[in-house]
Design a protein that fits this description.
The protein is α/β, with parallel strands linked by helices and about 120 residues long. The chain contains four helices and seven strands. The longest helix has 20 residues.
Length: about 120
């Protein structure tokens, strides 16, 4: 699977460069993403701008991956969902489980807000 990786100061943006994201490809993507939780910059944004279609199993894998990040106090935000992918995730009721933003810029904001929230909770 081809992906673009863009490391920022507070997070990493992963952009799959595939029009169709199958369950097998999503498994591979998850294997690539999960180790980021152990890195100095553990927060991820998954930019789905090029993915035009996917299946329910892929959505389930993404939801599981996101949950693993949040269980480990790391952010995981999905952005730029294309209409077909968003419709499938909505139909299968996975969309409501995912942290999704319309744009990458909004995903950056979510990651930064979650970081502030974690810092505030750690202070208590």
């Amino acid at each position: 699977m081809n992906v673009k990786i863009d490391t920022k100061e507070k997070f990493t943006v992963i952009t799959p460069d595939e029009a169709k994201l199958s369950a097998i490809m999503t498994d591979s993507l998850q294997e690539m993403l999960l180790p980021y939780q152990q890195k100095d910059i553990p927060h991820l944004i998954l930019n789905m701008q090029y993915v035009q279609e996917t299946d329910e199993k892929s959505g389930e894998i993404l939801a599981s991956c996101q949950q693993q990040f949040y269980d480990n106090n790391c952010s995981f935000v999905i952005c730029c969902l294309q209409p077909g992918v968003e419709a499938l995730l909505d139909k299968t009721e996975l969309l409501e489980l995912l942290n999704v933003t319309p744009t990458e810029s909004e995903a950056w904001d979510i990651v930064q807000m979650e970081e502030i929230e974690r810092e505030l909770l750690d202070d208590e």
